Every structure is written in C-alpha cells, then in structure tokens.
Amino acid sequence: MPSNTSAPLRFDGVTHHYGRLLSLDAIDITVNAGEFVALIGPSGSGKSTLIKIAAGLQQPSGGTVYLDGEPVRQRLGRTAYMPQSDALLPWRTVLDNVVLGAEIHGANRRESVERARELLALFGLEGFETVYPAQLSGGMRQRAAFLRTFLADSSLLLLDEPLSALDAFTRAELQDWLLDVRDHFDYTIVLVTHDVHEAVYLADRVIVLTPRPGRVAAQVAIDLHRPRHRNSSAFHQQVAQLTTQIR
Q1: Residue 105: pLDDT above 80?
Q2: Do you find a cis peptide bond into 213, omega within 30 degrees of 0?
Q3: Which of 10, 37, 94, 152 is most buried, judging by how many CB atoms fall within 10 Å of its CB?
Q4: What is the distance between the alpha carbons of residues 111 and 116, in angstroms, rounded to a whole number?
C-alpha cells in the first residue's frame, strides 16, 4: 500500500458541527490508491456528511482533508461524486446527461461526447444515446449516472448510496458490474452504504462509524478472495462479524 502522504484521500482529525450539534468527531481515515473502502454505520453517524466533505460540498469544522497528500480546502471538482439520486435531467437525452458534468467543468464537448460514446457499451447503454430518462429502468438510470461520474476525470470516486433505491436483483447485478468497471479502470472508491452485505461483497476494507457524533469505531479488512460468493459460509461469517461491530 502507498504511504499516507501519497494516499488519494486522507482525513486528519476532521470534525463537523451542525450549529451546536457535533456530527463528526476527530475522524482519522486514510484511503490508499486502488482501494475500495465502504463507510457504514447507523443513521445519523455522519457517513454522507463525511463523503460530502471529501467532495468539497461541505467544509469541516476542524481538521484537514488531504487529496493526493496535499491539504486541500477547495476540493469541489477535484473528485468524482455521485449522490444517492441519479439526478438525471429529464429534458436531456442519455448522451447529453452523461456529458453534463464534463461540460460544467469546462471540458471540450466534442471530446466528452466521443469519450462517452466509447464507454456506452461498457456501461450497458449502447443504443440508448437518444433516450430520455423517463424511458429508462432504475438500473439503466443508475448506469447513466455512473457514466456521468466516471467522465468527471478523477481516479477517486465518492459514491453516496448509489444503489440503495434499486430492487434486490438489480442491485446485485450492478454490484457485480461496478466491480468489473472498477477493475477495468483501477479507480479508488469510497462507498457509503447502510447494507452490511453490500459492504462485505464490494469493499477491501470497511470503516464503521459510531452513532452521532460519528467516530471511527472499527476498520475491518475483508479477507475474502474475489469473486466473492454471497452464499458461502466465509461470507456470512464476515457479515456477522461486521454486524457485531456496528451494534
């Protein structure tokens, strides 16, 4: 693993207040290059707040956020952030939606469109370029949102419960697809999830936060070979261990 100083993301003593309410307390986390890290904890533990701080959508009340080893206050646009909602614009086609983020960041539209077209098949969207969001299934909408996120040109992906609204079958399908895409591009991923099974299936390491104020209760390495099998005894043992940590 790379040293902390070269890690894509590091929180050093990060705290956060909502008014007088302390939501995050002295968070120390390092995410190493190429890691898939899951953040999990009870509702109100500050998981989404922490990932928004990493994305620059919020600022910490104290502590420092490092990107690629450098303390960075203005982080907006430095990472690729995906919220829980797909946030597709209904009046734009799939192709126009997926290049929107790149457009906002000043990228050349023609180059963005060409790159998007090259990735449509990998993201399961080939043939849907001119379709509008209302005509897509939930899984297809999330694939489009993922492609928009990947086109942000950052190797650090911050995913805030992107699969939580999907049915169980589609969710499992997209979990496998996300792992394939991650291996293809060698991204570093931080995923917020409420689902212990999802965390164990996807992550190299799971970070457990306490109830508010969120503190790091545990960091659990998932020592399961890939591909992982959801019905194996080793998988269920890891889920049980992690559930105990959360409780």
Answers
A1: no
A2: yes
A3: 94
A4: 9
